[in-house]
Design brief:
Largest sheet: 6 strands, mixed
Helix content: 25-40%
Mean pLDDT: 76
Number of strands: 11
Strand order of the largest sheet: 1-2-3-4-5-11
Structural class: alpha+beta
Low-confidence stretches: 1-6, 128-137, 255-277
Number of domains: 2
Length: about 280
């Protein structure tokens, strides 16, 4: 089926933004995954997004969705509401960036501000742009970075003692067996199948929202038999729950792309990036 001119323009713009993130992202972060026209698994359904970008800064990882709309009408509240629904359905905290050509309706602007969705508007460059006010593509992301401390496991003592007895491991030797907590720690079901790792699990416990969080103690009881490996390859430890203290701090990340306006205009008729408001 032939694409419309509008569809082709939108397709090219997605590729331009994808390329810009690919080049500039590596200069500022460690890109873990960068996809375009990508299907993301939500809790309830799959979601097709224009660009999905997962990257690492220091020891922490972040996710961004970029949605590009080439319609000739202003973006309304329903379109941003759809993006917000996608963000809410994803298992990890993800930022939304919305790019359009024709601007945003007033209620859409207010909704985006309340829900921390970044908005970009594309238009033909005017003299103000050419004098240097907007000659780059800038993404500023305000990250509320989670931290995890005071991690404690509640053991199933009776089960673990029986396990040690069956393996004929003396008590004095058993005292030396430990669980090494790290981002790579994995959680297993009773059949020995991994179902998550520590980093993913602890991130799932972070209270939603993009605000600073003071240290908060959270206890998560497992509703099914859960095990972790120990420093002794013979022994696995059964755990009933985990307790962790979580807090979030503010980090600002800015990615700058040189001469992005000229770069986009090569194939797209409209191409200055601005942030409304």
């Amino acid at each position: 089926m032939a694409k419309s001119a509008e569809g082709e323009g939108e397709h090219e713009l997605v590729q331009q933004i994808y390329d810009q993130i690919r080049v500039e992202g590596e200069r500022n972060t460690t890109t873990i995954e960068l996809r375009r026209d990508h299907d993301l698994d939500g809790r309830d359904k799959k979601h097709r997004v224009d660009i999905y970008w997962k990257f690492r800064v220091g020891e922490n990882t972040y996710s961004v969705i970029v949605e590009v709309k080439g319609s000739e009408s202003t973006v309304d509240l329903d379109q941003l509401f759809q993006l917000k629904n996608v963000l809410n359905d994803l298992p990890e905290q993800t930022w939304g960036v919305f790019v359009t050509r024709e601007g945003y309706q007033e209620d859409a602007l207010e909704y985006a501000k309340r829900n921390r969705i970044l908005l970009y508007e594309l238009h033909m460059p005017d003299e103000r742009d050419r004098t240097g006010r907007i000659n780059t593509f800038n993404i500023t992301i305000n990250i509320y970075q989670p931290h995890f401390t005071n991690i404690k496991f509640e053991q199933d003592v009776e089960w673990n003692l029986n396990e040690l007895a069956q393996l004929k491991i003396p008590r004095d030797e058993a005292r030396k067996i430990k669980v090494e907590g790290s981002d790579e720690l994995k959680f297993y079901d009773e059949n020995g199948k991994e179902f998550t790792n520590a980093l993913t699990f602890f991130n799932s416990l972070v209270p939603k929202g993009f605000d600073v969080l003071l240290p908060t103690k959270i206890t998560y009881p497992f509703d099914k038999p859960t095990f972790v490996k120990t420093t002794d390859p013979r022994v696995r430890m059964k755990i009933k729950s985990v307790e962790v203290t979580i807090y979030k701090t503010h980090v600002e990340i800015q990615l700058k792309g040189e001469n992005f306006v000229e770069f986009v205009i090569k194939n797209i008729a409209k191409g200055t990036t601005v942030f409304p408001g």
